[in-house]
Amino acid sequence: MSLRTRFLLLTGLRWLPTGFIIPVTALLPLHRGLTIAEMGAAFALQGVVVLLLELPTGGFADALGRKPVIMASSCMALLAYVVFVHAQSVLAFAIAASLTGVFRALDSGPLNAWFVDATHAQGGESADVVRGLSGSAGVIGAAIATGSLAAGGLIAWAPVDDTARLTSPYWIAIALTVVQLIAVTVLMDEDRSARVAGVLASITSTPRVVASSFALVRRSRVLAALVAVELFWGFGMVAFESLMPVRMSELLGDRDDAAAVMGPIVAAGWGLSAVGAFAVPLLLRRWSMRSVSFTLRIVQGVTVVGMGLAAGPIGLVVAYFATYGVHIVAGAIYESQLHEQVGPEQRATVLSLASMAMHPAASVGSIVLGAIATGASTATAMVVGGVMLALAAPLFLVRPAAEDPDVRRPAYRGSAR
Predict the structure, then answer these.
(1) Residue 199's pLDDT band (boundaries 50, 70, 90)?
(2) What CA–CA distances, in Å, run from 235 to 370, 378, 389?
(3) pLDDT (tens digit, 9 = 90+) per residue, 31-68?
(4) Fewest CB within 10 angstroms: 82, 105, 328, 363, which?
């Protein structure tokens, strides 16, 4: 089996469990008596944990090797899913969300890093890396779509009670994660003989890495603006990711019906995202990344506002599809702009810093939008989230100052986020 095939297979096994649980993640705590505000507060802990662990876990992957970190990530995912299945209180769901944060922090990057390392070790060229990484983006979309569609069918037709319907996707995710663990053990090979000695150095150097990352962003107006985009993006994504199933259940009048239809809806949304990614090269042939990003951020904000204003399920689904139609396009171009602003020796640090900005912003969004949904309405919370997304648009128009550090700016090649 070729390296690229193994990489794509491991990528699919990583994201297939996520596809299964997406349709029920927000509905399960509501079914068990939590309010939307309580759910938002509990889920906010995931972003806080990722913020605290993002850079340290990246250091662990460099020091210990990619394989053990991926296996640790899978073990944490298993534990998080089990806690979700049995959670009955705000505290239990908060613990599950925190464990998910550990899982996501460990999972952030080591599989891709392993593929890039192995490709270079085999004498591969940059084009081989690009083909593998772009292929993985398609696999992620297909895996999430497949899992969501299967979860929707399971919820709709399973001959069990309501609680079992909402927990059954988690049990399947647990089984698939065990399969992923076995696959990682069998399919990943790496030489870790020179890495273990760096563990202590990785831990002690983390404060310096964080400080140097902030210093780098502070020296560049464009980088600072791009990182700030993640603050608005993380906040606003809560509206169309976490609140979409809640709004659908309100419009349908039944949470089980909402859980059943959310599977195929999420699958179709991710499918549209994958199709939209093909438009990136076409857009950039006619317009600059700066102008396209500005426009896409406005468009996505408007579509999320449309989700909030939709008067029925059909209108909500149409607006949701429109939102996801631009989601990966915007993400691909955004990441390309980040890459343009840094050299290879700083690339991973800046990408981690951008991720660190997004996750706590999502935590704040979970709390604030959850409170708005509880105190006013879910529709109002969605409108606020859409407005926040659109407010990020002017940040793409920031131009470098004369004193900004010189950077290498490679041409965009249509990479996917």
Answers:
(1) low
(2) 11, 15, 8
(3) 898 888 888 888 888 878 887 887 777 666 766 778 88
(4) 82
The CA distance from 146 to 235, in Å, is 27
393 Cβ contact list (under 8 Å, min separation 6): 293, 294, 295, 297, 298, 301
Please report the domains of the chain, with CATH numbers, ordered by start residue: 3-397 (1.20.1250.20)
CA 254, CA 236: separation in Å to the nearest integer?
Answer: 25
Query: Which positions ≥6 away from 289 have C-beta within 8 Å?
Result: 333, 336, 337, 412
Rounded to 10 degrees, what is the CA torsion of 402, 403, 409, 412? -60
Can you tell me the distance from the alpha carbon of 66 to that of 190, in angstroms, rounded to the nearest whole number?
A: 8
Q: How many degrees, rounded to 5, is the angle at CA 118 between CA 115 and CA 120?
A: 110
CA atoms of 380 and 1, how far apart (whole Å): 51
Question: Which residues, at least 6 apart from 402, have a Cβ–Cβ distance to it below 8 Å?
Answer: none
* H helical segments located in 158-192: 162-187
The rounded distance, in Å, linking the Cα atoms of 102 and 402 is 40
Token pair 């549209």: residue: 272
Instruction: Answer positive or negative: Cα dihedral of 63, 64, 69, 72.
Output: negative
45 contacts 172 by C-beta, under 8 angstroms: no
Distance in angstroms (rounded) separating the CA atoms of residues 107 and 18: 13
